[in-house]
Structure formats: C-alpha cells, structure tokens
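The passage that follows is intended for readers who have already worked through the single-chain material. We present the inputs for a multi-component assembly, then the predicted structure in tokenized form, and finally a short commentary. You are encouraged to pause after the input and sketch how you expect the pieces to fit together before reading on.
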Amino acid sequence: MTQVNRLTGGQVDRSQVLNFTFNGKAMQGHPGDTLASALLANGQRLVGRSFKYHRPRGILTSGSEEPNALVQLRSGAHQEPNTRATVAELFDGLSATSQNHRGSLEHDLMAVTDLMSPFLSAGFYYKTFMWPKAFWEKLYEPAIRKSAGLGRLSMQDDPDSYDKGFLHCDLLVIGAGPAGLSAALAAGRSGARVILADEDFAPGGRLNAETLEVDGMSGADWAAAAIAELNAMDNVRLMTRTTVYGAYDHGIYGALERCTDHLPTSAGKPRQVLWRIYSKRAVLAAGSTERPIAFGNNDRPGIMLAGAVRTYVNRYGVTPGQQVAVFTNNDDGWRTAADLAAKGIAVTNIIDTRDAPAVCEVPGARHIRDAAVMDTVGRKGLKAVTLTSGQVIPTDCLAVSGGWNPNVHLTCHQRGRPTWREDINAFVPGGDLPPGMAVAGAANGSLTLAAALSEGRNVANAQIKELGFTPSRKPAPKAEDEPSNGMAIWHIPESTKRAWVDQQNDVTVKDIKQSYREGFRSVEHLKRYTTLGMATDQGKTANIPALAIMANCTGKSLQDTGTTIFRPPYTPIPMGALAGRARGQDFRPFRLTPSHDWASKNGATFVEVGNWLRAQWFARPGEQGWRDSVDREALMTRGSVGICDVTTLGKIDIQGKDAADFLNVVYANAFGKLPVGKVRYGLMLREDGICYDDGTTARMSENHFVMTTTTANAVLVFRRMEFVRQCLCPDMDVHLISTTDGWAQFAVAGPNARNLLRKVVDEAHDLSNEGFPFMACGEVTVCGGTPARLFRISFSGELAYEVAVPARYGNSMIEALMKAGEEYNAVPYGTEALGVMRIEKGHAAGNELNGQTTALNLGLNGMVSSKKDCIGKTLAARPEMNRDDAIRLVGFRPVDRSVKLIAGSHFITKGDDATMANDQGWMTSVAYSPSLGHSIGLGFIKRGHERKGEIVRAVSPIHETEMEVEIVSAHFIDPEGERLRA
Amino acid sequence: MIINHPLLGPRDAAEFIYLGDASLIDRPDWQDEGADEKFYEYGYLRDNPAGEHQELWYHEQGDRSWLVVTRNTLTHEISKVELARDVARARGRSK
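Having made your guess, compare it with the prediction:
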C-alpha cells in the first residue's frame, strides 16, 4: 500500500522513508511521523477493537489522550502492549499489531459480544453472573477476563534497562506549547535555572498543528526559533519526550523521559529515565484537550476530533479523509474546515449546533445551522452521517469539536478542585494549587494564542520575581486572538442508537443514565460503577461530557457535580521505569562478610540473614545432604574445636562518661557495676514490656563499651539508642557509632578453642583460665601485632571465644585460624550447627524473641533490675503479663525418641481435646541433636517451669501430626555450664 | 517532601525514617505516682490532628540527628524543624 493520504507540507522529512509493518502488512512513513499519522497516511482507518464490545475503532485524537488506537509494539521480549499509536514515534523496522480480537482485526470472532450488549450494560457483572455463586470464580470471571482486556504481556523478563535521576531548578515549565515557550523564554532571559519539559518529541505544542502566526512568522517557525534561543542558554534545560506526570509535596515533580522508545534498539542505554525534579517554582502550561460530542454510533473509524484532524493535515501532511464533514458547537471547529480547505481537501459540510452565521469563509463547504449528527453508518470505516433532520451526508471523515478542556490534572494532585467557568464551558484550575505552581495559557482557560503567549510570559516573570530575579523587559510575542466562542452541547438527545462517551471503556450515554437511575450519582460512584474514566487514557476526552450528562440527570450545576479526583500519573508509567535499577538482586543487595570468598571456596551454602549472606553449612565430599554436614559440624565442635563467622552481629561502640548510665536505660539489666575487662549478657525490652533484642556488651575501659546486637535488629537497635540518647537523655555524655562493618568477628568454640587461639594470639597475652576467665574481654594482638579484640563468650555452651579484627584482616584471620586449627581438626560451622548447639543449650533466638514474649516467658525476669529505670520496665509489670499461668520457656523431647519434633506444634494437656480453648503453648525451635541422638525442642508452655517430667501432646493440625512429648529443662547439654568455664 | 534540617539544610524526606508523635520525648518518670497509667498513655495514646503535628524524624541516611518536624497533616507544609535534643532540653529532660 502506498501513502494514499499523504499531502504536501507539514513537519515530516520526506527525503527519508521509514518502513514499518501493521499486522504484518508492509507500510511506509517518514521521520516526524507518529505511528498514527503513518497509519492514516497509508489509509489504515481501522486500528483496533474496543475493550468490551469489540467494536471496530480507529484513531480519535493526535495526542496522549487517545482512547482507541492502542497497539502492541515490537515483538519477543521487547513487546509492549497498550501503546497509544498517537504518541508512538515511527522508526524504521517498527512492527505494530492491533489488540483485543480473536481472529483477524477485520473479522473479530468476539464481535458477537456487540450483539449481546443489552445484557452487558453498566455494572453487568455485578448483576448477571451472580448465581450460582461458585461459578463466579471458576467460570464467569476467567471467561470475562479472557474476552475483555487489551494487549498481552510478553511473559518474558524485560530486557531493557531503566534509570532514575534527580534534577534541580528555579522554575519548571511543564509543556512547551505557546504558553510554555513564552514562559521559558522570559525566565531563561532573566538568568533563572529553567527546566522546560514536554511530552512530545517536537516541542511547540499546538503551534506545530496550527496555521496561526506569531511575530509575523508561522507558529511552527516561531517555535523553532524560540527553541534555538532556549538551547543556546546555559541556564535552560529543554527536555523533550518527557512527561511531567505528577506534582508532589514541596515543589517536587515526577517526570518520565522516553530516551530510546523512538529508536529500533536501546543499544545498552536506559530505555526510560524517571526523573525527580526539585523546583522552587513551576508554571503549568499543559494546554487543553478537545472533547467529543456523544451521538449515535459516534465511535466509527473516521470519526475524529476536529483539532486532531487539522493536526494530521498541518503537522504531518496527512489527511484522515478525502471527503470531510465537520460537526461543531464552537468556533474552533471552523478552523479545521478552513485549514483543510486551504490544503485542497474537500470539506463538504459544516454542521454547527448553533443558529449563528458562518465563523469564516470555507470554500466549497455547506454550512448547516442549528443542526446535529444523530447517527452514522460504516461498520469498519465511516461512510455517511445522518442529521437530526434526517438528511444523510456521505463522508469518510467526520471532524467533531465539542470545545476544549484545560488540562488541569496537575493542579489537582494535592487535593485541589477545579472551578467551572460558564463562559468557556470548561473546568479551570481552582484556587488551591500546589504551592509554588502557577498556570498559564490554555491550561488556565486562556484558550487563544495571543492570551497563551502573554500569560506564559507574565506568569513566569511573576514566579521568578518572587525568587529574586529581575524579569527581562522583552514583551510577549505577538499574535491575534482567534475566535473561540462556543455553546454547551454534550450529547445529542435525539440519537436512539448507542452514543459513546468513554470509548476506551465502552461507556455510553445510556450507561450513565442507568447509573443515575440505579443511584450511583456522585461522580466517584459513576466512575466505579461504569468504569468511566479508567484505563490508559484516564478519561481525558470522556470525563467532562460524562459529568455534564450526569449533571443533566441530577439537575445540578457542573460546579456542584464536580470532577473525580485527578491523581498521578498524568499518563501511564511503565513498571520498569518505577523500578529503575532496583531489579532482581539489585532490589535488595546482599551484604557479604570479609571471609565470604573463603567460605564459598570451602563448600559453604549461604542463607540470607537480614541483608547478609551467612554460611549455613560447609558440605564435604560424600555427605548426603545438609543434615550430614550439620551433624558433623556440631559434633566436631563439641569434640574438638569449630569456627563460625559472626561478623554479621550488630556492633555498636559506646563511649563517654555516662556510657554505663546510658546502658542502664536501654538494657533491662544493670551495667553500672560491670568491671573493666568483662562482658555481660544484656536484654532489651520494648517500651510495652515485650522483649526486643539481646546480645553481649563488653567494658573495654571505664568509659568505653562495645555492644553486640542480633544480626536482624542491628539497624533498629542503633536507631533506638540514638533516640534514647538525643530525645530522652539529651544531656548524657555519651556517643554512639555503628561499627558492624568495621570488624570481622569469629567464634572459636570447643574444648580445644584455647589451644587453637594460643597459636594465633600473640604470646604477651595471658589466655589461661585464671588470666582470661569466662566472660573476660580485652584488646590483644594476633599473628604478630595485628590489633584485635578478644571476648570469652559462648553461644554453643563450649569453652569459646570470639575474636574480632579490623574488617580488612577478616579473610586472613579465618585462614590463620583454620591453619592453626589443623592439628585439632578444626571445622568451620555455619548457622545451622550454630542453631543446633544453641537449642541444645536452651538459648533464646529469633523464634523465641518473636515480639510476643516477655522476660518472664523467657525465664529472664530476674534480669529486669528493680533498682533502676529502663525502657519497658513499667509496662512489663502489668498484671496480665505476669499471670501465674504465663507461658514459660522449657525444653521438650519426644517420648518415642525416634520421632521428629515439629516446630509450630501446639501443646495440649493429656486427656484434653485439641481445641483452641485447651491450648497450652507452642513449640518454637526444634533440631536433631547429634550429641543426644534424638530430636529436641524449645517451646513455651503454661507454668512450664513447674511441669518438668510431665508428658503432653504436641499437635500440629497443619502438618496433621500429633505426638507425646516430655517437658524437660531447656539445658540439654552441660546444664551446670562446666564446659564453658573450663 | 523536603525537610529543612537545622544543621544540613534542605534534605529529601527519603533520607529520613519517620517515627511518630513528638510526644514520645515526654517519657514519664518511673517513680511518679500513677506511673503505670502515665506509661500506658505514653505508649498507646496519640492525638491524630488534622492540621499542625509535631513529629519525630530520624536522619538515618545522614547525620543521625533526631528532628522534631512541625508538619501540617492536611497540606504537608513544614513550618518548623528543630533538633530533637534541643526540644527535649526545652521540655525539661536535662538531668
């Protein structure tokens, strides 16, 4: 097919030909075309099927407000559904397909739904598919979902990359039409830092689409000159293909820049960039959107907005039809007739709803006054229209103008409400604009070119003057005020056929009236009941006519009827752009300890803890699964010596004269009398008395403590300690710093721990049981002078130490420890063996400190000092948390030792039914103890401390298991603690 | 949102962590008469004003200052930003 509808003129580069396909058919266009203009040039009027009734649809508009011409672009993983053909820039090799039809676009098998339309009116799925109830989920909804819906996702990972960026300016100008260019020129000349953003690839807005003159030259030429001047200014950044989609607090705007959508490939560059623009002031110059008039069968391909028709003719050099009729209620529709006639296109009739003389001379056109279109024919392309008089007019393109709506959207993003202006029959920005924003031009209801140019300049000057800039004295560009009168006509009541208001959602005038009759009368109810104004176009062409029809029904004014709330984004934003670089693993980067590579090389399997990767176990050749490795690690540690990377524990350095007093506030137990060179276990409560976190704190010197927290709570505990320091104890002499990343730390545990460390810690330091007893700490040197800290603390219950070195020595330290341990068969162990050994010792961990349990529940109530205040002390004393029958942490073992305990099982007293009312507590942690040779568990059970030896039922309805378990001490191994003091 | 940090100037709200009502500074004395009732109110009861609200923000991705931000909950206008430590002292939390 050749470009049958291509004219001369316009802003396309005819010296280059771009080849593209639509539904596999080869077509041609030129640089400067959109897909929509190129389709029209090639005579393709039918471009899609409608959402609900699968009606044949064409192109209605020439901009981002397009409801109909949604297409799927590209193929494979790059496939993108629901793209508006009117904003898709043509490039060589583009492949586009139509959507939402079964079979071909011309012969859509689903078109039968159009015949069923009497059953599918507004709210049909709330009524029609109600019974039988079970059919909804299994039958009705999947069937409806399959037949409705628009394009399809590729179902593959998005191969493109996206980016985010931050920009700052004095003045953000949104829209580069006449008002925006005039505003940017004024502000730029004053020296202010200006960002000018426009969604189009060619700045100029309507100047590119009109034949109006500015300063004695064509609008497009003036725009080109203005852009050249702006580009030459260092203080102005011009951003094309950039949609400012939202107005946020404190002058922050969101913008989406489409960087490579107009190119065949992204070639490694980000496809789109999501910008956050920090502005001191903003001028909204977003222009206006033409609205249609609703009449019978007004959705046929070939029926277009009048402004769009002349955009295609003037800007793209394409005529949408060969025999055009205009249907208008205002002066602006006449410009379409005049512009087309000037290009030699046959304009046969101008049907004006007003009983008024011609607005201008249009050669060859018949002016029909006080008339309206009532119906149309031509299922896959307009053939003729019928007037209310019964007259039939043959035409292949009907240009419809119902007046223009200012694009007030961004003025409402902070709950502003627009105001109805009777004189222009449109909503204009209300008084409650986002702070710092001013509106100019058509967006402000100043609908003529001269008004837009002068208002743009004046508003920008007022804005920058407030910032202390001296406005340039250069006057606003000169233009004529074109005629812009109109009358309020929203739909043609004489039409008996379906008249479409929202073409994207297939909402008709009848649906709106039905919504009214059924009581859904507020605009928000109307929207939700009929889906009017939803989906990709957000009702940009549909909302105002719909509100006016509802206002007609209710007898209210349009001001009282109001609009639905406009929310960001102004136009759709791809999820990929919102995600930016935070995809896959980059969404939540891992933290790695200094010995990570060493662990990888030694067979570690890793587990995510907080953001860290920790070694879970170290598999050796021949082991048949994780249990083999974990059992070996636990047994070899208890048998000789094991080494575990504990770098991930939170570490907080606390210094100052009041450091001990400070610790007394944050910890439940007392730290004032902790001697220098000693470590103490500490328990933190929340202010409501629930246990929060635990760890050890070492007193390195009189005024210097080193705290450890759990891995998961490291950030939260530090934040809370800063809160206590600054907000509760503002005059304490104490300073905090997180040193989690500063130190690599290793636990060395087992009967040979001292022997191993003796080979690593420099000789000057006494490691004997007397010289460095249980809970001792100190500064030492290792490996011949490397500074280190040594703590004699034990989580495993064995003779154990933790040695910390500056993080940069972490990898060397693990290698030195393993080498020194060779003669003792030292084994690295992971978090699983750590867990086994702590359960064997009855130590609480995350499963027990789960945000529901108190110190009493954990058996640690003796630690809550009665002599001092601490966070959580008072509320922990509440009676309900101290009942006699409170749950207590105890150990459990299966009566039948061969049975595996199940974590999460609930305890039931023998003889009772397994019901909620009889619930006695639950199993928190279980492990297979290789030392004992059977499964063991920790758990909470009512009065557990008094019930040792009792046998209860452990029931898990989820696992459908039940077993008898014996209540025992939580200290399964070495209950007297002789090993750790050895 | 932008928070005008008293030491560092205007900073994006994304650098901060929100905690809540600045009344959390007014932690009761454990030895007061009726301390349990006071702690209950301190821990659980908050005003929810439509308008000016004093609240605690923590500059976690910055200098670790706790700030008291006076923000209008209807408009998000921030009329005052103070160091929480200064507010705590002014409210009598000095030793």
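Commentary: Residues 70 and 80 of chain B are 5 Å apart (CA to CA). Chain B has two helices and six strands. How closely did your sketch match?
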